Amino acid sequence: MNLWQRMTGSDLTREWTAFEARAAALPADHRAAWQQIKLHLTASHSDFTGRNLLPIADGALGLLEETAADGQSVREVLGDDIAGFCAALAGGEGAPSYRDRWRDQLNRNVARKLNRLGG
Amino acid sequence: MDGLTEMLKGTLEGCVLQIIGSEQTYGYAITRRLNELGFTDVVEGTVYTILVRLEKNGLVEVTKRPSGQGPPRKFYALNDAGRDELTTFWAKWDYVAARIDKLREGGT
Q: Which SUPFAM superfamilies match (chain A) (predicted)?
């Protein structure tokens, strides 16, 4: 990744376009699940750039592709808990989200102010 | 049996290790095996998240093999670290199971 890509996220756009092309080849219900997975991942587990999601999204899409080829339904594959699936995946990657960063920042600020008061 | 999800948390990883330990296998076959055992709630997505974790923790060897249709399948086998982890899992299981049995029998 070069500086231009880091600043503009152009590499991300390219990766996601490739994902969408793969998703377009899936059967309708798998495609709908992919939309759900993207939504859950980006809403709750993305860092500021979303770069942490690339390997996770790639794997999830691979799972959908494999199971679609096997002729399994989305219900058989993911059950009814797509949010839980996404949390387990992102948690397994230890991917910190923007919420974690905000929480860290808040904790640091509070600790600093408390120190100042105490000192 | 239904509704076991909560209780299985934490043990499912050991179960998957055990299945991989007995033969090199892939996600769908692992899910099927667990379903046959009576863990009907377990879906392939659940097994997939466990496999991702095992791979990340360096407990399995992964090889890709072409499948008849669709993308190549990932096959999983235990490495030495995985075998150690499996031994530890069964030791922990024996410990917990023994204590809980004792509790049920009203011992101390």
A: BH3980-like
